[in-house]
Design brief:
Among the domains are: about 80 residues, Endonuclease Iii, domain 2, CATH 1.10.1670.10; about 80 residues, Endonuclease III, domain 1. By secondary structure, it is an all-alpha fold.
Length: about 240
């Protein structure tokens, strides 16, 4: 890695100054609710998901209840999150699998989680780290963008990025570090980054390369002087005949 050990820690600490106590912005009460909410958040926003889930969980509060739901009813409830048909199938499917294979409980195991319908490593890491007390490092598009700009990773593959990032920090910091990078990607290190606001800018290869001081351009020497600089024009004296 380009920035191992202390260099990486310094970068994380600088970014954390922007987002102290960073956490997931999804609202949940149980591991099951977070699992469903994270699946719904794909290609959507946490804010939109948080608007949908209270009604969804009021009607289907447990895996057993959601497993028996009619697809069209779930589709209507999650419609605003996008890709609603696929998402409805996924949350009904994972609920069915939880009931049949895990007694209705969400397993605290990566392999068991990714075996559920619609659940990948990112979703599994979110649930493990935030609801089940198992260190995880969720990698989404924000993490990939921010970590690459900071020189922490050199890949656009989420699984490889996860391995590279977890090698830089102790396990106890994984989940918080991921949340920090996600929030930084949403608020500061956006696709058009606000490098001048970033506490990590002096440590960031992207900022050092792409941020230059602004210099006022001088007018070309051939440019005409402003009117205020021209000598006054004398009025002609009128001569009487």
């Amino acid at each position: 890695m380009a920035r191992p050990g202390g260099g990486a820690l310094a970068i994380f600490e600088a970014v954390e100054r922007h987002h102290p106590n960073a956490d997931t912005e999804l609202v949940f009460r149980t591991a099951f609710e977070l699992l469903v909410a994270t699946v719904l958040s794909a290609q959507s926003t946490d804010r939109r998901v948080n608007e949908v889930t209270p009604v969804l969980f009021a009607r289907y509060p447990t895996p057993a209840a959601l497993a028996k739901a009619a697809p069209d009813e779930v589709e209507s409830l999650v419609h605003s999150t996008g890709f609603f048909r696929q998402k409805a199938r996924a949350v009904i499917g994972l609920s069915t699998a939880l009931v049949k294979e895990h007694g209705g409980a969400v397993p605290a195991d990566m392999d068991a989680l990714v075996a559920l319908p619609g659940v990948g490593r990112k979703t599994a890491n979110v649930v493990l780290g935030h609801a089940l007390g198992v260190p995880g490092f969720p990698v989404d598009r924000h993490v990939l963008r921010v970590a690459a700009r900071l020189g922490l990773i050199h890949t656009d593959d989420a699984v490889k990025a996860e391995a590279q990032l977890t090698a830089l920090l102790p396990k106890a910091r994984w989940t918080r570090a991921s949340d920090t990078l996600i929030l930084h990607g949403r608020r500061i290190c956006t696709p058009t980054p606000k490098c001048d606001l970033c506490h990590a800018r002096t440590l960031c290869p992207f900022a050092v390369t792409n941020t230059k001081p602004r210099v006022r351009a001088k007018p070309p020497s051939s440019a005409k002087a402003p009117s205020s600089a021209l000598p006054p024009v004398r009025a002609k004296t009128r001569v009487r005949p």
